[in-house]
Amino acid sequence: MSLKPKFKSLARAxxxxxxxxxxxAPAAGWSQAKPVTIIIPYGPGGNYDQTARLLANLVxxxxxxxxxxxxxxxxxxxxxxxxxxxxxxxxxxLVLTGSSFLLQGLTSPNAPxxxxxxxxxxxIILATHNVHFVRADAPWKSMTELVEYSKKNPNTINYGxxxxxxxxxxxxxxxxxxxGINWTEVPFTGDAETMTAVLGGHVHTGxxxxxxxxxxxxxxxxxxxxxxxxxxxxxxxxxxxxxxxxYPVVLPSLSVVMGPRGIPADVLRELRGVLEKATxxxxxxxxxxxxxxxxxxxxxxQARAAVEEEEAKYRVIAPMLQAYIKANPAGR
Length: 332
Description:
Layout: H1 4-24, E1 36-40, H2 47-58, E2 67-71, H3 78-85, E3 93-98, H4 101-107, E4 119-128, E5 130-135, H5 143-152, E6 158-162, H6 167-179, E7 184-188, H7 191-199, E8 205-209, H8 210-218, E9 222-226, E10 253-260, H9 265-279, H10 282-291, E11 298-299, H11 301-327
């Protein structure tokens, strides 16, 4: 009696089991054992770095794989974003940065991304404010005093920003256009370096995201002079907006989690679900409140639409930055 029919039946059964397993498994390339890497395109210790490291801890109850954070500073955030854009689209490499990355795509010929459509917008997790600050013992008690001093003493103020030629530069150009001031921009790789420079007296004033500045404000080491928001931020009720001081400078930034284009739909759903749960925790809400950020959470199509709206704003101000870069080519 031949055993071949039995072997054929067994083979068919095994094949059916494998096919069923593949059907139930996550998308190709998704390994629950492989960690999710969040790239921060700036130096350690800044706003995005703090946010990502908190998230990497808060997602633990909602996913089986670890989330790790790495810093890839350089070229005003372009290097880190480009690395995420070129990664394998398996949902294992993400980048957390501000919507100001769009500015680099619009103004830098070296940026491999040219717009929001070059990356997958997975979630928006905060709206941050790039506040303007000085050391607590600085002679200027208000933004108005600093502006008036700058007008009477041109070319004497050094201004620390993450850059060169980032959103901090644009905000300075908007203020310069409104007041006629003339500062010397000193670029750093991230908010933490800018803060160190201000505290050390190496620059007179600086701009950084509110979460990076808040701890030093609480410690009594720095003073925030103004915030470029539409209205006063609830967590900073005593800090005036540029607009109410008479300067038309409004430039918030959304904190966006992105990945390469082509991530499978079911993996995107999982990533968004994990982030939605993590950002809804009391710990994350407290972080947003304590740091002066706004808990602005959007996912999927809503996140994509919000980034596209920001992109339209940056297209309007990009020519201003392009003219400044042309006049100061050594910075790039």
